[in-house]
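Hi team,

Below is the intake form for Cell wall elongation regulator TseB-like domain-containing protein from Virgibacillus indicus. Please confirm the fields before the structure is written into the shared record.

FORM ID: S-0412
PROTEIN: Cell wall elongation regulator TseB-like domain-containing protein
ORGANISM: Virgibacillus indicus
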Amino acid sequence: MNRQFSQFTEPRWLTISLLILFILILFCSIYGVILYNDLKDSKTAGYDETKNQILNNTSITEIEKIEQFNGAEAYHVIFGKNENGERKIIFYPLKGNEKNLTTIDQSEIIPSKEILGQWNGQCQDCELVKIVPALIEDEALWELTYHNSANQYIIDYFSIYDGSRFEQYRFNRTFK
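The structure came back. Fields below:
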């Protein structure tokens, strides 16, 4: 009888180990969700404040979307409409208390789809990462980031008005 009792208690270590493993997996999952949400929130940090400033201090009455451009200076790039329905792009600098806004009328620029068509004609084997309006040295540009067939990461800047190339950076992959 003593032997039968020990047979039922010996696999107890297995039950405890599985319980500890389950608790660790649960805590790691919860931590992962919290970390993901925190990173997502930090990516869009300041968007609400920018939105309020733009709506209260400019002629923009509707904001369609907000993106971020990071160059020598960081900007929130606001796509919106004014009371006349005219579509505008506003570069809202993130640095400093006094904001010098740069506003562009979307009817005067080459649309991103046209720039992408031009780029795709030159680089058929490339994989687009993103396209966003950029402001470098007070020059309004389209910033295209992509990977080419040589596995380089490329940042290409084109004029937002005529599509001419402003500058290009190529980065070779160090590790494979």
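SUMMARY LINE: Strands lie at 60-70, 74-82, 87-93, 102-105, 127-136, 139-147, 153-159, 165-171.

Thanks, M.
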